[in-house]
Design goal:
alpha+beta; 4-stranded antiparallel sheet; 4 strands; 157 residues; Dabb; Stress-response A/B barrel domain-containing protein; Alpha-Beta Plaits; 4 helices; globular
Amino acid sequence: MRIISLLAAVAMALVNPVSGLPGGAATPKCPAPAHHQPVTHIVMFQFKNGTRDVANTLASKFFALKDTCILPTGEPYIEALTGGKDNSNENIQGGVGNTDNITDVFVAKFRSVEDRDYYVDKDPVHEVFKNYVGTLINNGTLVGKKVQVVDYTPGVF
């Protein structure tokens, strides 16, 4: 009986009392609070056929945001900005069975939810860009008023 008690004591010593993990392993680190985690912001457009010149102008304006969007402190806050014209061969850019296909996609990366929120809600330079996109929606250059935005925090499901 003493041997079993001794073995149980040794086994308990090998288990981290906080995490319950074997071998005395440390408690896994919890991810940072969501507002301190990076955010990926995806913007997708559907341009009418024959409006590639307008799409290229929009792309130039979008890419300029990386250097012209700055916080009130004067520091830029868009960490990365990429994008391009669709070239997928899957033919489901508008969804399965839908022919309203996305034509252009842009991806911006922000350090935090706060930076993304400033961009979306307060940045005056981004506001000018949104107004430009609004004119494209209103004049029919963007098919079916098709602009989609999806944001996510990498690894958070």
